Amino acid sequence: MILEELSNMKQCFRIGGEQKYHSRLINDIFVVKPYHRFVVNVPEEDLQSFERILFLVEYAHWFYEDNSVEKNPSLKSLTLKEFTSLLFNNCDVLKPYVAHLDDIFKDFTSYKFRVPVMGAIILDESNERCLLVKGWKGTSWSFPRGKKGKDEDDHKCAIREVKEETGFDVSKLLNKDDYIEKMFGEQRVRLYIVAGVKDDTSFAPQTKKEISEIAWQRLDELQPANHDVISRGTTGLKLYMVAPFLASLKSWISMHPPPVAPRSDKPLKGISLWKAKNSSTGNTSIIAVSKPSKAVADVRPADAFLGRSFRNFRFDTGPIMQALESAFSTTKMVNKIAPCKQDP
């Protein structure tokens, strides 16, 4: 019954409490195949609890935000709770539970924090740097990771989540016996250690609006500042999702020599490999992406921070001479058209 009703939500969905239907939203969420993948094609047992149903609603919400809102500026961006409230208030099979929606949503949030999380700690060839990702809205960094699916193997979940968040397939490098596991309350977090990844590997998330930046960060700069194990590192990075794994990671590295010896010419600062920049034109969101192989402009090499000596200073004469020639030619052209007046 619930399955049939959920698949027919298009018949009872209203926007913002207004007594009207929004055809674009209906077509995008409740008719096209991507939404059917979230609801119609799931096993019957996934519809026997509100926790599982709200997971499906969450997937639909992501699809709405990432596709419908982005393509149609007239649609309003909704929080997950707002989106869930609309469904409960406008779907006959869920209406009887509207009075309990706050408790249902609270239980769902608590349930999410009990779902196991899998991911990977990706190390470069020298074991000096690890790959970190920054969330779309937050400012904290973490290892690529995500929640485990129903009946999903730990290592397969880690491979999937890393691929989604970085675009990199670790399946051939992952050893199921090399991992660090921690318990955070009732949530189990397991991160597999994946070493030997080349510096010039290309990274880019495969999901929308989930990751805002991917970067190599030096491990020696991730040590917490002032003995604060859950706050910031010496570089100012927020590390509360990274710090709990650092001691175990250092222990693992001490017993596993890197395939490539550390080099002195490595940048002392982190290197941003992929970054999404948000701008807006009207109501349309535009994402500009850059994937440099070297450090981006806002990540300076070590000597930019330490200061260069005058002995090593050199003018970049090529661009300077080109700019001067261009300026002189422009001045000559202006003088031919309108000669300067001489002072009396």
TrEMBL record:
Gene Ontology CC: one annotated term: cytoplasm
Principal location listed in the UniProt entry: cytoplasm
Cofactor(s) recorded in Swiss-Prot or TrEMBL: Mn(2+)
Entries under PROSITE patterns matching the protein: NUDIX, NUDIX_BOX
Domain Nudix hydrolase: 113-239
GO terms classed as biological process: deadenylation-dependent decapping of nuclear-transcribed mRNA; nuclear-transcribed mRNA catabolic process, nonsense-mediated decay
GO molecular function: 5'-(N(7)-methylguanosine 5'-triphospho)-[mRNA] hydrolase activity; manganese ion binding; RNA binding
Assigned keywords, A-Z: Cytoplasm, Hydrolase, Manganese, Metal-binding, RNA-binding
Segments traversing the membrane: none
Protein's UniProt keywords contain Iron: no
Family, similarity comment: Belongs to the Nudix hydrolase family. DCP2 subfamily.
Protein name from the UniProt record: Nudix hydrolase domain-containing protein
Organism: Buddleja alternifolia
